Amino acid sequence: MARMIAERADALPGLAEVFREYGYAGASLSLIGTATGLGRGSLYHFFPGGKQEMAAAVLADVAGWFDAAIFTPLEQADDPRAGIDAMMVEVDRYFRSGQRACLIGAWGLGATRDPFADSIAGYFRRWIAALQTLLARGGVAEDHAATLAQDVVSGIQGAVVLSRALNDTSLFRATLGRLTARLYTALAAA
Amino acid sequence: MARMIAERADALPGLAEVFREYGYAGASLSLIGTATGLGRGSLYHFFPGGKQEMAAAVLADVAGWFDAAIFTPLEQADDPRAGIDAMMVEVDRYFRSGQRACLIGAWGLGATRDPFADSIAGYFRRWIAALQTLLARGGVAEDHAATLAQDVVSGIQGAVVLSRALNDTSLFRATLGRLTARLYTALAAA
DNA sequence: TTCCAATTGTACCAATCGATAAAGACTGAT
DNA sequence: ATCAGTCTTTATCGATTGGTACAATTGGAA
User: Fold this and answer.
1) What contacts B104, CB < 8 A, 6 or more positions away?
2) For A164-175, b where at least 16 C-beta lie within 10 A, e where not — what string?
């Protein structure tokens, strides 16, 4: 009966989808079981800490993905404009043009955040810092780079909320475009 | 045993707080009972439809509050700038400078929205329309007013997410200030 | 005072919750 | 062939879930 295929990491995508859609409290073990294709035994084998460990693993996985796919490329981009473009492309893909919620942002809003407050804050701090670094390297004044980076990360989160609520993918993409334009303008003025 | 004091409306604030903090699934009847000071009997007397009716009532209450305190004043403001200022003051107060989540925005992100998708979308549409109307009356070009209104509502939602995640009230207020400045600039150019 | 409708407390329901335990099935290495 | 270790199934736990039923109690109208 053992597949030897299953690793802990294989369960994470399904796990993340359930948590994202139903929230921490709403993600029951039956839903999790269905989404991951794993029985209770397997789940508790991979996550002895239970639901809380599953949530922590998902959070770490999402944060890790953003780190590798967005934050680090952002910091290491040769051309600031190319770095920004790459970020926006990945953001649009990841959030499915605003139809997919931000798990970390959503958990930050409710009581779920308490056990994970540091991870959640760290994720956003890292994102802002990476963007700020890029802008500063592009010649943007430090304080302007800081507020601009905040505005962009905040603007993306707002676009996720609004475009999901209105069920409007074009709104998300248009907002990303406007945020990109603001970044370009700041770089051009520098 | 009867108090004869309690009305259905008296339960709404506590109800809203629980739903906001714990989400729909996480808001158990015990939590709701504690927060409202009402037993199961009273709750099901006022809300025969159970949890779902409680949620719908809270949603309608929040939307009604915004309508009366923000949207309508926005539409009827004599001076666009004064209308904007009043909105920002109320927004900052309502969201407690970003420490209080937006119940409607949060529910729009997850599976909870399904039964309430129309109400949630209507809330945001109304907000954007009111702001857009104000800008248009201030002489801002229609398409510019539309995108600007979207950006501001989206920006407020993003600021709630970000400032709550970072536990930073000054970030929320600063973002509101920058959004206000953008609106002023558009009005000045008109 | 009597009575009625509104409100509340209590007990209870089946279903599901998260979690545990133990036995079984499979693997790779010896 | 055997063994240790990995993974899965199944059954089950006590607690809690949302919801119901009903009697007790109340304030106000008659």
Assistant:
1) A165, B59, B62, B63, B119, B120, B123, B124
2) bbbebbebbbbb
Name the CATH architecture for the domain at A58-189: Orthogonal Bundle (1.10)
For the record, the structure tokens of A136 come out as 């500063």
Residue B9 has pLDDT above 60, yes or no: yes
DSSP 3-state percent helix, strand, coil across chain A (nearest 5)? 85, 0, 15
Structure tokens at B136: 């248009």
**Nearest chain A Cα distance for residue B165, angstroms:** 5
Using the beta-carbon criterion (under 8 Å), do A161 and B157 form an inter-chain contact? yes
B25:A21 CB<8 A: no
Query: Any idea which fold B55-189 has?
Result: Tetracycline Repressor; domain 2 (1.10.357)
Task: Tell if the CB–CB gap between B161 and A154 is shorter than 8 Å.
Answer: yes
Mean pLDDT in each 10-residue stretch from start to end of chain A (190 residues)?
A: 66 97 98 96 96 98 98 97 98 98 98 97 98 98 98 99 98 98 96
At residue B138, the 3 state secondary structure works out as coil
Domain ranges of chain B: 55-189
How many CB pairs lie under 8 A apart between chains A and B?
A: 144
Residue A182 touches partner B, C-beta closer than 8 Å: no
* Amino acid identity at B96: R
